[in-house]
Amino acid sequence: TYPKVLTVIGEGYFNDIASFFCRHHIPKQGVLDIWGDEFPPYLEVHPISRTFPFLSELAHFEWRKSQIFLLPEQSTLELGFLKELSSRGWEDWRATVTATAFLFQSTYDFKYILDAIDQQISLVHLPQDFKKKTYLLGVRQEDCIQTYWLDQNMFHFLRFLQQGGSVLEAYQHIPTLDLPQALVFLFSHKLFTHIQEA
């Protein structure tokens, strides 16, 4: 579940931390796939966070990815459906976002973190501009998690839709959003399972 956390701190240290966690956080259900959700907040208060302040967020990200893999495949709407919506002249509608997608927000340069891990660059010494908000979308497609980096507008737009808001309501809250471009992105990446008039 946490291979990137292991890579950052090393296998020996990771095993020590994980062993202690397992002894003090006994599973509350009989499904081991959902055991370990308390590990990210555990890391947040662990002394290791002084060396790697982003570690808890990295663990949260990996946990979200692992849970997405447990969900069944969902039928999603193609880009052509957006053209159909436009032809109907609908001014407002709500979208059901596929459960196999998740939004993630970090207080750190999360792209730098993931790239450094992939390139086996040490994260002990971080650049000065390391602390900045980053936003991403994770989507499971064909048994693989695709990661897309979002700007703040796009992140909040999609989150608003996830929470049941209509497209018009979301746009009113984020008037600087390029709505046509945002909708083409969302439909082309098959993020919606159902559309209904608001």
Any overview of this molecule?
The chain has 198 residues and is α+β, with helices and mostly antiparallel strands. It is built from nine helices and five strands; from the N terminus they run H-H-H-H-H-E-E-H-E-E-H-H-H-E. The chain has helices at residues 3-9, 11-24, 39-45, 55-68, 80-88, 110-118, 152-162, 167-173, 179-188; strands at residues 93-97, 101-106, 134-140, 145-150, 192-197. The strands form two sheets. The protein has a three-stranded antiparallel sheet with strand order 2-3-4. Strands 1-5 form a two-stranded antiparallel ribbon. A hairpin with a 4-residue loop joins strand 3 and strand 4. The longest helix is centred in the N-terminal third of the chain and has 14 residues, at 11-24. The mean pLDDT is 92.
Summarize this structure briefly.
Helix content is 44%, strand content 15%. The chain has nine helices and five strands; from the N terminus they run H-H-H-H-H-E-E-H-E-E-H-H-H-E.
Which descriptors would you attach to this protein?
single chain; about 200 residues; alpha+beta; 3-stranded antiparallel sheet; two-stranded antiparallel ribbon; 9 helices; 5 strands; about 45% helix
